[in-house]
Amino acid sequence: MKISVLTVALNAAETIEDTLRSVISQTHPDVEHVIVDGASTDDTLQIVKRYPQRLGKVISEPDEGLYDAMNKALDSATGDVIGTLNADDMYFDEHVLQRVAEAFEDPELGACWGDMQLMDFEDMHRLRRYWKSSPYKPGKFSRGWVPPHPAFFARGDIYREKGKFDLSYKVAADFEMLVRLIEKCKIKTAYIPATLSRFRLGGVSNQSLRNVSQGNREILRALRTNSVSVSPFWPVTKFSGKLLQFLRKPVPNDQR
Q1: What does DSSP assign to residue 41?
Q2: Domains delineated in the chain
């Protein structure tokens, strides 16, 4: 089973080496790392060239933003299963993709996900927030639930059949994709109760209060577009769920 890992980058020389090493270290034998670079002006591409192991297609050209680059990566991926890993993030350990491959031994499974650690941008040993996910149940999206996208994997055929990222969403196209695949299209899913990825805090949707506000508006639009009713308690449950992620810490030495 080939797994494609998609990474989009723009001037990511400070962090992309960690990402590349994380993918190279995976024990799963068949991994393709697709890199889409938005014509970086720093040393991003030079660093990528130093790690040719497991590299699939490498594209470097201007794009229309993050999700346009993600769609280019999807078009270039040849894996049976596809996951995304940001250019400043890492997998939790070298066995992540092996666990994912084992989940997809179920031929009816369309997608799976696990938990995610959110780390301090300057110190990847400092845990700031722990995103413990859970299995999907109908209606959970309407209450503010969503699986962590950097810990989400789906079959390549799912993307080809159900569509790519909707570029009308500027900061929440990943959310729209998830609610469309899981809630609207009702693909079979599974939750892996383990930490799969480590995310540096500071992503596009969290860079400013303006982006947070726009992200919330886009999330509500995505729910309505995909015929998901929005609970009147959505703001409360969404905020409380995120707050718990800051307060809750994994048990020491526990895989989760």
Answers
A1: S
A2: 3-247 (3.90.550.10)
